[in-house]
Specification:
Strand order of the largest sheet: 4-3-2-6-11-7-8
Shape: elongated
Distance between the termini: 66 Å
Order of helices and strands: HEEEEEEEEEEHEEE
Largest sheet: 7 strands, mixed
Bound molecules: copper (II) ion
Strand content: 25-35%
Structural class: alpha+beta
Mean pLDDT: 92
Number of helices: 2
C-alpha cells in the first residue's frame, strides 16, 4: 500500500474510533445525566433557613406514577417541585419540615430508627387524620422505631454529615385506607399524614452533600433498592451548600 493510502486508512480508522466514543458518551451517558430535576433554593433569614419536603405513596409523573417519592416546596411560590435537589447557605441553622403522607415500611437495619445528627438529637412529630384534624399533641422523640407500630415511612439521611432521620408515617390506624391518593399531597387533599420537624447546622464547607432514604422502598425492584431508591428527584438527592 502506498504511503498516502496507508495514511488515509489510518485517518479513517481513527475517526471511526473517535466517532464511536462520541456516540457512546452522548447516547448512553449524556442523555441520562443531562435530565436533572430542578434545584430549589432556600435563602436564610435571621441566620436560619426553612426547608420543606413531603413524601408520597405515588407521584404525578407520566412515566413512573406508582413510584414513591419526595417533593420539595419552593419557598417563593409554595409550589411543590418534583425534586430532591435543594440548596442552603453554609454554616446556617437548617429547620426541616417533612410532611409524611406515605404508609409505613420497616428499615432493614433498625439502627437508623435512632435520630442522629439533629440539634438536640431529636425530632418532633405530630399526627393528623384525613380530615386534617390533629391527633393528640406533638411528640419530641429521639427514636422512631420502624420495627413497631407502623411508625416510619422513609428516612432523610445525609451520611457525610452524620445525619440520620427516620421520617414518620401516618400511624397504623390513621393510614388504613386513608392515604393521600393524588400527588403532590396537601393537608386539604384528604390523606392522613404526619408532620415531622427537626434542625441541623449546615456545614461550613460549600459543596454537594448527597442525601437519601434508607428504607428499601423501591417496590417491585430487587431487595427494594432499585427504581426510586437510586433515582435523583425521588428517594435520593443532593443538598447543595452555597456560600452564605
Ligand atoms: Cu424511601
Amino acid at each position: 500500500m502506498s504511503v498516502p493510502a496507508r495514511a488515509a486508512a489510518l485517518i479513517v480508522a481513527f475517526l471511526a474510533v473517535v466517532g464511536l466514543g462520541v456516540f457512546v458518551a452522548y447516547y448512553y451517558i449524556g442523555s441520562a445525566s443531562t435530565q436533572l430535576p430542578p434545584t430549589v433554593h432556600y435563602t436564610a433569614s435571621g441566620g436560619q433557613v426553612n426547608v420543606v419536603l413531603q413524601e408520597d405513596p405515588q407521584n404525578d409523573s407520566a412515566t413512573r406514577p406508582d413510584w414513591v417519592t419526595y417533593y420539595t416546596q419552593d419557598p417563593a411560590t409554595k409550589k411543590w417541585e418534583h425534586t430532591t435537589l435543594f440548596s442552603v447557605p453554609a454554616n446556617t441553622k437548617v429547620n426541616v419540615t417533612i410532611y409524611g403522607y406515605d404508609g409505613c415500611t420497616a428499615l432493614r437495619n433498625n439502627y437508623f430508627s435512632q435520630v442522629q445528627g439533629t440539634l438536640g438529637g431529636t425530632v418532633t412529630v405530630q399526627q393528623y387524620n384525613k380530615d386534617n384534624k390533629a391527633l393528640g399533641g406533638p411528640r419530641t422523640e429521639s427514636l422512631l422505631n420502624s420495627w413497631a407500630n407502623c411508625n416510619v415511612a422513609h428516612t432523610f439521611a445525609i451520611p457525610s454529615l452524620g445525619i440520620y432521620v427516620p421520617v414518620a408515617s401516618p400511624n397504623a390506624n390513621n393510614s388504613v385506607n386513608n392515604l393521600c391518593g393524588t400527588s403532590p399531597c396537601t393537608p386539604s387533599s384528604g390523606g392522613a399524614y404526619a408532620v415531622e420537624t427537626f434542625s441541623f447546622m449546615s456545614p461550613p464547607l460549600t459543596g454537594s452533600y448527597r442525601w437519601q432514604c434508607l428504607i428499601p422502598c423501591g417496590g417491585g425492584y430487587i431487595d427494594g433498592n432499585g427504581g426510586p431508591m437510586q433515582t435523583l428527584g425521588w428517594m435520593a438527592g443532593f443538598m447543595n451548600v452555597v456560600a452564605s
